[in-house]
Write a structure and sequence with these properties.
eight-stranded parallel beta barrel, binds 3-methyl-2-oxobutanoic acid, TIM Barrel, 281 residues, 8 strands
Length: 281
C-alpha cells in the first residue's frame, strides 16, 4: 500500500514484506515539524545519529549520546501517524555485549515509542542482533560505510570494492540470519548493492548504493539543502532551504533596520477587537 493511502504506521514485518516490491521510501528526521512534513510520504522515518552533525554541529556521529537520541526520538514520534519510526543506537551503546545492547535498545523503544532500532555492523554484530530480535527488539542493520567506525575505516570511503565485496556480502547474510528485518547499505558500489539485494531475503535500504535496492534513505537536511557543510556524491538536493532561509533572514534584518517591520497588519489596535482569530494559516 502506498504511504499516502495508509491510515496507520507499518510494523517492521510490513517493511520486511516490501522486499522486491514498490521501493521503500525513508528519510531521517529529528524534530516534530519535519516529521509531520514527511509522515504521509515515507514508509519509515529514521531518527539517525546524523542528528549530531546536522543539528548539533558535531564533527562526526561519535559524540552522540543516548539522551540525545531519546530526546529527538520523542520529538519525531509526536509528528508521525502513518510512518514507522526507527531510532539509531548511538556509538558505545551496543557494541560491548548483547546485554548492553538490549538494555539501551529497550530504553530507546520504551522512552520514544520507536518500533525498531538501527545499529551499525555486520557479521561481528550477528550475536547481538539475534539476542535483540529474540527479546522483542526489531533491528535494522547498517553495513558498508558505517560512520561510527570512520576512525578504523580511514574516513568516509566507499566500502566493498575488490576483495572486500566478499566480506560485505557475508555481513549482509549474517544480519539476515540474525533476524534483522532490513539492512541499510551505505556507500557501496552499485553492482555489489544489486548483488546483495538479490542474495538476501530482507529489504536493502540504499544510501549511496543502487536504484536496485529495495528502498532508499537520505538525510533530510541534505536533500532539502539545509545542511551545506559538505555534500556527498550520493545526495540529491531537492530544495535549497538553507539559501532561501538565509535570504529570508537578511530581508527581515533589512526590514527591522528600515523600520518596515512590524507593519500595520502585525500590530494591535487599542480600540477594535481582532476580527480574525489567530491560528493555523
Ligand atoms: O544517521 C543516519 O542518518 C543514518 C542514515 C544515513 C542511514 O544512519
Amino acid at each position: 500500500m502506498s504511504a499516502t493511502a495508509r491510515k496507520t504506521a507499518p510494523m517492521p514485518d510490513d517493511i520486511r514484506a516490501m522486499k522486491g516490491g514498490t521501493p521503500i521510501v525513508s528519510l531521517t528526521a529529528y524534530t516534530t515539524p519535519m516529521a509531520q512534513m514527511m509522515d504521509a510520504h515515507c514508509d519509515f522515518v529514521l531518527v539517525g545519529d546524523s542528528v549530531g552533525m546536522v543539528l548539533h554541529g558535531l564533527p562526526s556521529t561519535l559524540g552522540v549520546t543516548m539522551d540525545m537520541m531519546i530526546l529527538h526520538g520523542r520529538a519525531v514520534a509526536r509528528g508521525l501517524a502513518k510512518s514507522m519510526m526507527v531510532v539509531d543506537m548511538p556509538f558505545g551503546s551496543y557494541e560491548e555485549s548483547p546485554e548492553q545492547a538490549f538494555r539501551n535498545a529497550s530504553r530507546i523503544m520504551g522512552e520514544t515509542g520507536a518500533a525498531a532500532v538501527k545499529l551499525e555492523g555486520g557479521a561481528h554484530m550477528e550475536d547481538t542482533i539475534a539476542f535483540l530480535t529474540a527479546r522483542g527488539v526489531p533491528v535494522m542493520a547498517h553495513i558498508g560505510l558505517t560512520p561510527q567506525s570512520i576512525n578504523t575505516l580511514g574516513g568516509y570511503k566507499v566500502q566493498g570494492r575488490g576483495d572486500a565485496a566478499k566480506q560485505l556480502t557475508e555481513d549482509a547474510k549474517a544480519v539476515t540470519r540474525a533476524g534483522a528485518f532490513s539492512v541499510v547499505l551505505e556507500k557501496v558500489p552499485e553492482v555489489l548493492a544489486d548483488a546483495i539485494t538479490a542474495k538476501i531475503t530482507i529489504p536493502t535500504i540504499g544510501i549511496g548504493a543502487s536504484v536496485g535496492c529495495d528502498g532508499q534513505i537520505l538525510v533530510v537536511d541534505d536533500m532539502l539543502g539545509l545542511f551545506t557543510a559538505f555534500k556527498p556524491k550520493f545526495v540529491k538536493r531537492y530544495a535549497r532551504l538553507g539559501d532561501d532561509g538565509e535570504a529570508a533572514i537578511a530581508a527581515y534584518a533589512a526590514d527591522v533596520r528600515a523600520r518596515k517591520f512590524p507593519a500595520l497588519e502585525h500590530v494591535f489596535s487599542d480600540k477594535l477587537p481582532d476580527t480574525k482569530p489567530e491560528g493555523k494559516q
